[in-house]
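ZP: hey, is the 5CA complex queued? I don't see it on the tracker
AM: it wasn't, my bad. submitting now with these inputs:
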Amino acid sequence: MYISKSFIPILKNTPSEAKIKSHQLMLRVGMIKQSSAGIYSWLPLGFKVMKKIEKIVREEQNKIGAQEILMPTIQSSEIWKESGRYEDYGEEMLRIKDRQDREMLYGPTNEELVTDIFRSSVKSYKSLPQLLYHIQWKFRDEIRPRFGIMRCREFYMKDAYSFDINDEEAFFSYNKFFLSYLKTFKRLNLTAIPMAADTGPIGGNLSHEFIILAETGESKIYTDKRIFDLDSEGTKLEKKSLEDLRKKYDQFYSVTDEKFDKDEFEKKVSEKNRLQTKGIEVGHIFYFGDKYSKPMGGSVDLPGGKKDFVKMGSYGVGVSRLVGAIIEAKYDEKNEVMKWPISVAPYDIAIIPVMSKNDNSTLEKANNIYLELNKYNLSAIIDDTDENFSSKIKKMNLIGAPYQIIIGKQTDGDLLEFKEVGNDSQNLKLKDIINIIIEQKAKN
Ligand code: 5CA
């Protein structure tokens, strides 16, 4: 793809309304465009990244046996009246009337709708567990939308729901999502730590938020530094193995603001391990038993002939928020250099021909490299403009492809100037460059 033909409306300067670096970069490099307060259009660069994040989220959901569905954005108020949340949800819910004067709403979350789908088809314990998820736009009329797509009104979320016969099985489901979240965020090159959290309007009494550390985050967190040394390596998708994983994480004091207790923190965490900082919530999981299945009549036949309400949990990932969260974690704003993790990069590689006007032979070289990369399924963007080298590099550093090939005077014979963003350049053959990138991609 030529940069001159791409819809990447880069701005010369950072817009002053953007207060945090993800918002600054996303506007600067034309990933999004605000359409009204807290509502954004996603332009090609931003959309590419979000779709790659979505793909990873989806793959990790599928791996734990969750099944994908797609529920609508518009819901009827009836089911929310059944659960009792229609009034409780308050001003954040966007309420709409249709031409028949029926009360509708733009879904802020889907516990009611998925319970309605479940109750109409599943009648027996034999069909349990059921893990259903969808990836769909949500609307919450946030009182103070801010920081671009980090806290906006319309956002893209993966929400999953589990249905089980009893608490024990429901915790098993909960722990499957716990594992799947650790794996998802790792593939996105993020260190997200699970923290005991409040349940808010979703309800229930067991909940973890997955938080990545960032000074600009909105969540205050209190944690034991040792939790950063843990990982999910070796965890099997079995009850005991998953329980052990949860225990391993839960043994360390790690909570969000609402759950914070100073005495407990000081008692459980030695001074040298205490960390009090801020973070971004990228995922949130909840267990709430029969909070929705009971009022809405979501029950199944049990082995002995009795009936019981199914035990449910819900599991959210902020897919659109993750685009910003990755920028917060990876963007070096001082030097204006973004390096996307290869797993979600909008392009794998930037080709930067250094050429004067009408220098067709350098551009042709760039084209040939582009075609060769394509053969190996590597995506590239060529700066085909006649701008000078430093402005080309600046632009590509903002776009954030993790690798660059510079075709200039030094390019001699088979050797190309190759650079992993942030490292020194080296002269390599195209074949070797391709191997390096393929190897990096395979790790994800
Ligand atoms: N039903 C549950 C779980 S599916 C639920 O809605 N959970 S939530 O409210 O915590 O949202 C899930 C995730 O969506 C959050 O962890 C966050 O990453 C993202 N999110 C929530 N509100 C916003 C918002 N206003 N802007 C961007 N992302 C948001």
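AM: back. The chain has a mean pLDDT of 95.
ZP: great, adding it to the tracker
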